[in-house]
Amino acid sequence: MTSSASFWDKAAPKYATSAISDMEGYRATLERTIAHLSPTDRVLELGCGTASTALELAGHVAHITATDISGAMVEIGRGKVAEAGVDNITLHTGVAGDPEVAEGAPFDAILALNLLHLLPNQTEALAQIHDMLKPGGVFISKTACLGERWFFKPLVSVMALFGKAPYVTHQRVAALRTAIAAAGFETLEETTQPGTPPRLYMVARRV
């Protein structure tokens, strides 16, 4: 599972200080995610950014392994975790296929929030996520479906030429739903959050 580490390393300082653009949607995502977690759960978060969500969830689970492809993001996240005095979050730089990331498997839950649309090898990533979950474990994702708005593809292509955008997929909601099912997951809950682009929030069980 790969993405542009250098792009996100450069973006990390600004990303860490930027306000969440859709706080209502973010809070709704946290609320629904917490409802599917338990105090004994061992959780893996892929694409953790600067650990903001891991910090929000840490009090609801036993342990979170939080990972990101960007070393700069992870270093900022470590500082935030240390400052908060939280001792049940472990941060790693890496992706799902890396031994250091997978060493805690199998997990009770795996999170990929605002990540799947950034992956050029989504099918492989979903297979790895399936393999790292316990049977019956939950995969919780939230994904921007850029394919639902025709203008994103030319816009993002131009931005990428100037180094202003990372790799993204232009997937539609139905295609993403099909991909997750094909990887061996049964949907427990899904919501398409409105916006430009819409975001598919899904909770799925490994079968």
UniProtKB/TrEMBL annotation:
Regions crossing the membrane: none
GO molecular function terms attached to this record: methyltransferase activity
Protein name as it appears in the record: Class I SAM-dependent methyltransferase
Record key words, sorted: Methyltransferase, Transferase
Methyltransferase domain span: 43-137
Keyword Flavoprotein listed: no
Keyword Methyltransferase annotated: yes
InterPro entries in the record: Methyltransf_25 (IPR041698), SAM-dependent_MTases_sf (IPR029063)
GO BP, one annotated term: methylation
